[in-house]
Amino acid sequence: MLNTQAAYFRDVGFSNETASKLAGFLSERLKLKEEDKGTVIEYLKKRRQKVRGKERFGIVFDATHYCNLICRHCAVNANLTTKSSSQIQFETSTEDVHTIIDKVGDYSRSRKYPIFFMFGGGEPTLRPDFEDIVRYACKKFGEGSVGFNTNGTTLSLDDLLRLKHVSTIEISLDGFEEYHNSWRGPEKISSVSNPYRRTIDLVLSAVQHRAMQEKIEVTSIATKDNISQIPRFIAYIFSLGVRNYSIHRAMPVGRMIHCLNKIPNMSEYAELFVATAKIANEVCMNDLHVHHSLESIYSALLLGEDLHLTFLPMASGRHSIGIDPHGNVHFDPWCMVRPYDKLTPGSLLDSNARLADFLETEGSAMKIVDDLSKKKFRCKRCLMQCGGGMRFNAMATYIAKLTELVETDILESHLLAGLSQIDPACPLSEEI
């Protein structure tokens, strides 16, 4: 019966006539109390005020796929290294990174799209030229439009302070010590004996500096093993002086495909959303939020509009495309491994390559993906005013189930078919 009701709401969309029925459906399916809905609605309205007018086209450039940890949820199967940076032959030279940045800058100027350029990995700070390429990006896009993420085990406070001209420094901490270390790489495998202690000490020292406190954002990936701890963890890092915290989703890709049973389901995400919204409404943090895809889904269902829906490519003001260490462009930063790399249109390091051609040329993989991510195709043609949650998660979940059912080579056609599926975190999906 619930699945039939879900299909009904997808067919009719959000309207004044269906709003009360939809609210009742959500309450029944997610076991939401009236006060829970009020909490989430208050949170979403505050987030709408915070993000509107700040939409930017996101670029996540993985500066390397080498890492000093071997995290169980790594989406790119990063190569574990115990070598010093000077001993590693990194995938891309400094000059090549400058070329990639230049071509993104050309696209930004020609289309007048504001860019947010995020360095990711692997562990990007392993590169000995990391400060150089960060400065180069800041000159190209402005200091307020550049950030990076790090596991926090390779940097000293002095290193971090030399990078303070960026606007955002995402530091990964997935929860308390036992859990974090069990997922980030035990001593026998990596050379970091206690990743949690190294990272928490860096965060603690960094937030003592007022300017750094505004830039440091602690991020956690939610799994079934830590999802119930996250509210307590938020309270703990807030007590340390952290004022920015975000919750990311575990993706069924990379090393996480060996832990599919650890990915939270729809109901668990809903419980986390309610708990996080309650904290965000009560404490004075600068920025505390769940993943943008969950915000898109719930704002569409509860407010009748997706607070992240924009004119930008891929429809969302929070969606980012990915660029791998070899300059290949991907629909999503999570698409850099097989079979999802089949959707790349090519590398920006090819002499005549332009980002505009990759994104806009009819028939190119990226243009096809963008078209299929539009409302008339995505989420089984659901009529809700929503960006579709997370298109990659819909596709990757579909592919994971397909490969469980039959042994088959995944073709581009399978990937494209996956883009029409429903994000399993959405209450209007058939997932339980």
Structure, described:
By secondary structure, the protein is of the alpha/beta class. It has one domain (45-375): TIM Barrel, CATH 3.20.20.70. Helix content is 43%, strand content 11%. The chain contains 17 helices and eleven strands. It has helices spanning 2-12, 16-30, 34-51, 94-111, 130-141, 157-162, 177-184, 195-206, 210-215, 230-240, 266-282, 292-303, 355-360, 365-372, 378-381, 391-405, 412-418, and strands at residues 57-62, 66-67, 79-80, 115-120, 146-150, 168-172, 216-222, 244-249, 287-290, 320-323, 329-330. The strands form two sheets. A nine-stranded mixed sheet has the order 9-8-7-6-5-4-1-10-11, sandwiched between helices. Helix 6 links the parallel strand 5 and strand 6. Helix 1 (2-12) runs antiparallel to helix 2 (16-30), helix 3 (34-51) packs across helix 12 (292-303) and helix 16 (391-405) packs across helix 17. The longest helix has 18 residues, at 34-51. The protein is globular, with a radius of gyration of 21 Å. The two termini are 13 Å apart. The mean pLDDT is 93.
Any idea what the shape is? globular
Oligomeric state of shown chains: single chain
**What is the strand content?**
5-15%
Q: How do the SSEs run, as a string of H and E?
A: HHHEEEHEHEHEHHHEHEHEHEEHHHHH
CATH class: Alpha Beta
Write the topology of this structure:
Blueprint: H1 2-12, H2 16-30, H3 34-51, E1 57-62, E2 66-67, E3 79-80, H4 94-111, E4 115-120, H5 130-141, E5 146-150, H6 157-162, E6 168-172, H7 177-184, H8 195-206, H9 210-215, E7 216-222, H10 230-240, E8 244-249, H11 266-282, E9 287-290, H12 292-303, E10 320-323, E11 329-330, H13 355-360, H14 365-372, H15 378-381, H16 391-405, H17 412-418
Helix pairs in contact: 1-2, 3-11, 3-12, 4-5, 10-11, 16-17
